[in-house]
Design brief:
- This protein is mainly α.
- The protein has one domain.
- It is 73% helix and 0% strand.
- The protein contains 13 helices and no strands.
- α4 runs antiparallel to α5 and α4 packs antiparallel against α8.
- It is globular and about 55 Å long.
- The two termini are 30 Å apart.
- About 3% of the residues have low confidence.
Length: 304
């Protein structure tokens, strides 16, 4: 296969994965169960597929590592906050705000790991934060959820939890595979999500077949979408991948408008565009300085 064909194949897989991930907030809305309960079913349905994948690798699932356990806790917090954000604000805002994760990852690396970014990164942060604030403060023209301010706050906090999850995965990848880390984080996260749903008094079981189908869809999306993106991002430059994966909030916003009448207002659309532009610029600015060095996969990872 020629290099050009390999590139187009990777682009197609990346586009497919980003589109699949864009269905996540839609499935949460259709799950007919509590937000934390939907997260529990997402992980529970994904675990058998992850086990099959890991079982075929040398060493199998093995034993959970410290980073795998930390990743499970962080991903549990990520799903809990994001799913509540999805139910309280619009799908578009919840998805855009959570995709500020790359900015948080690079800022965390700068502050705690002494990995100083380029000055351009500060401009990117200003764009991303300004766009997010504009989007959250502006009014939409359709349904926006029962409590948009609280939902926006939950969605923005999700970016922090997902950043910590990705940093734990990044540390764990030094000694084990991504599949094994995802498997054990799911094993840890599933009972934690169950406890959260019980404490919050949520409905655990979907009341309809459509709700069960949505929960199963969340599990399949978790494996297929993330797997496709991970495979493609290893074969494309960060500058390309970081733009394509932002199809996720575009797909989510479009489906939110079609299915739930959540149309973006003019200023919300402007804010979303500015925020996503800031994310792209942040990822470009935080790329390795040496041209031959592999790019930082964490800074290019979308919200899943």
């Amino acid at each position: 296969m020629t290099e050009a064909r390999q590139r187009w194949r990777a682009l197609a897989v990346l586009f497919f994965g980003a589109t699949v991930i864009g269905l996540s907030p839609i499935f949460v809305r259709l799950a007919d169960a509590g937000p934390a309960a939907a997260g529990m079913w997402r992980l529970a349905f994904a675990l058998p597929f992850l086990w099959l994948m890991v079982h075929r690798t040398p060493g199998g699932p093995g034993r959970p590592s410290r980073m795998g356990l930390i990743a499970g806790v962080m991903f549990c917090l990520d799903l809990g906050f994001w799913h509540y954000g999805i139910t309280l604000t619009s799908v578009a805002k919840a998805t855009v705000l959570t995709n500020l994760t790359p900015v948080v990852v690079t800022a965390f690396s700068w502050i705690f790991l002494r990995e100083r970014p380029r000055a351009l990164f500060l401009v990117a942060v200003a764009l991303a934060v300004g766009g997010a604030w504009t989007m959250a403060a502006a009014r939409g023209v359709g349904a926006q959820g029962p409590n948009p301010p609280l939902g926006d706050a939950f969605s923005l906090t999700t970016a922090l939890w997902y950043a910590l999850y990705m940093l734990a995965i990044g540390q764990g990848r030094k000694t084990e595979t991504t599949g094994r880390l995802m498997f054990w984080s799911g094993v840890v996260g599933t009972p934690l999500m169950l406890v959260a749903a019980l404490v919050l008094g949520e409905r655990l079981l979907p009341a309809t077949l459509g709700g069960w189908a949505a929960c199963l869809g969340l599990g399949l999306m978790h494996v297929v979408g993330q797997g496709s993106i991970a495979w493609a991002m290893g074969r494309l430059p960060a500058s390309t991948a970081s733009v394509v994966v932002l199809m996720q909030p575009v797909v989510a916003a479009w489906l939110g408008w079609v299915l739930f009448a959540e149309a973006l207002g003019p200023w919300q659309g402007v804010g979303a565009a500015i925020a996503l532009a800031g994310v792209v610029l942040a990822q470009w600015a935080s790329r390795p300085r040496a041209a031959a060095a592999p790019y930082d996969e964490l800074a290019s990872s979308p919200k899943t």
